[in-house]
C-alpha cells in the first residue's frame, strides 16, 4: 500500500469519528459539522492537500489512489449530510415544541381605528336631511369675497369683512378662506333653478380666540330651501324635526330674533346648556344657553343677485356649527378635544 493510501484511509477514520462525535442535542452542532467539513474536505482541508501530491506518484499508482480519495470524499460528504439533516430536524422539533400554540387561549385583540366624532355627526346629519328630501352640495374652501360676502348681501363696509375676523390670502385682495359654507348656496342657485333643497357641510375658518367653545377652524352645515310659498313656519318645523331626530332625547330649545345680512327675518336657535342645566358655565359662556344655529328667510336681494324672482319664489336658510352639536350630543365640554388627536378621546367613539 502506498503511503498516500494510508493517509487517505487514516483521514477517513478520523473524519467519520469526528462527525459521529457531534451530539444531536449540542446547540453548536451545526457549527461543529461545518468546521469538520472544512478541516477534512474543504478547499484547504487535509484531503485536498493529499490530492495535490498525486502528481508525484507513478502513473500506474495514480488512478488507484485517486479513486480511493474520491470514495473517501463521498463517504465523508454523505456522513456530513446525514448529521446536518439530523441536527436540523432535532433543532426544528425543539423550536416547534417551544413555540407551540395553545389553541384554547383567547385571541389577541387587534386595535381598530375609530371614525372621528365630527365625521360620524356629518354622516348622521346627511342621513336625516336626505330623509327630508335634501341633497348634499359642496364648494371651495378658498373663495372670493364675492361668494363669501357680496352675493350674501354683505357690503364691503360690513364688520364681518374686517381682517380681524376673516383669513385673507396673499393670492389676491379678494381671495380668502371661507368663513361660512353659504358660498355653496350662491353657487348652487347660480347654476340651478328652483325648487332647490340642499345642505352644504364643510370646513370654515374665522379668526376666533381659542377657548372651550371657540376655535379658528371648525365645521358647518348650511341648508337652503327655495320654492313657491315657503313660510317661516316651515323653517321652524324643519329644524325642530331635525333636532328631535339628531338628539333622540328631550332638548329644551328656543328661537330668538337675530340679524343676518342674507336672511330677513332672522333667528337664532338655542339649546339649554346640558353641562350646567342653564345655570351658566365656561362651556356656555355663563349664559346658560348654547347657540346651535342661525336661520331665517332668504333675503330678496340674495335671490335677485342669482337671477331668481323673489315675487315668484321664496325660501329659508340655516347654518349650524357641527362642533357645538357634537358637544351637546356626546357630552363634550371643550371644543379643543376635537383637534388634539388624543386617542383617549377618539377611542370613545
Describe this structure in words.
With 349 residues, the chain is α+β, with helices and mostly antiparallel strands. The protein folds into two domains: 3-98; 117-346, Bira Bifunctional Protein, Domain 2 (BirA Bifunctional Protein, domain 2), CATH 3.30.930. The protein is built from eleven helices and nine strands. It has a seven-stranded mixed β-sheet, sandwiched between helices. Strands 2-3 form a two-stranded antiparallel sheet. It is elongated, with a radius of gyration of 42 Å.
Overview features:
single chain; alpha+beta; BirA Bifunctional Protein, domain 2; 2 domains; 11 helices
Write the layout of secondary structure elements.
Blueprint: H1 3-20, H2 29-41, H3 46-51, H4 62-98, H5 117-131, E1 135-136, E2 142-144, H6 145-148, E3 175-177, H7 182-191, E4 196-205, E5 217-227, H8 232-247, E6 253-260, E7 263-272, E8 289-298, H9 300-305, E9 314-321, H10 322-330, H11 343-346
Parallel strand pairs: 1-4
Antiparallel strand pairs: 2-3, 4-5, 5-9, 6-7, 7-8, 8-9
Helix pairs in contact: 1-2, 1-4, 2-4, 5-10
